[in-house]
Amino acid sequence: MLETERLILRPSSRADIPQLFEFLGDPAAMEHTHSDKTLRECQRRVMVHEWRRRRDGCAPWVVVRREDGRIIGWGGLYEDPFDPGWGFEVGYYFRPDVWGKGYASELVNAALGFADKQLQLQEVWAMAHPDNTGSRRVLEKAGFSFARHLHERDRLLFRRPRSAEPR
Fold first, then answer.
1. Cross-referenced InterPro entries, in alphabetical order (predicted)?
2. Residue 52 maps to which CATH number?
3. pLDDT by residue (tens digit) across 78-127?
4. Structural domains of the chain, count
5. How far is CA 40 from each of CA 14, 49, 52, rounded to the nearest angstrom?
6. In terms of residue numbers, what domain contains 37?
7. Is residue 166 part of a domain?
8. Quick check: 49 and 56 in contact, CB under 8 A?
């Protein structure tokens, strides 16, 4: 478990799946990325990532708002088991009603601190849909730089080398 000023970041459990599916399964909320079609598909995705946490030392966290204990997101640092080959990346998914409140930036900064201090990764990657300006801003503020456009995926690829400054 990891805590930030406003968030508690913790591993996922099966009991979290219905609340996660409320936004991970919402096509409007997930407009720029993968949307789970069923509760079972969401459970599979989340639990496969949890298995990878034991292997890799990281996986997306359940994002809980400290002030009220509400699950508002899912994300962090991971190596995607469903789309391998990109190395460690940062990803984040939030309920639409909390967009624009700085939670993604807070999560990304915590994930990068974990990448630098605990895993000592040399670089971290991230992807954003070209139309998702909010996500691109989050990545740029966190020190990511544009690497290239992945035309076949319609994604922008960003990279961030290990920070010389501790987070």
1. Acyl_CoA_acyltransferase (IPR016181), GNAT_dom (IPR000182), N-acetyltransferase (IPR051531)
2. 3.40.630.30
3. 999 988 888 999 999 999 999 999 999 999 999 999 999 999 999 999 99
4. 1
5. 11, 14, 18
6. 2-161
7. no
8. no
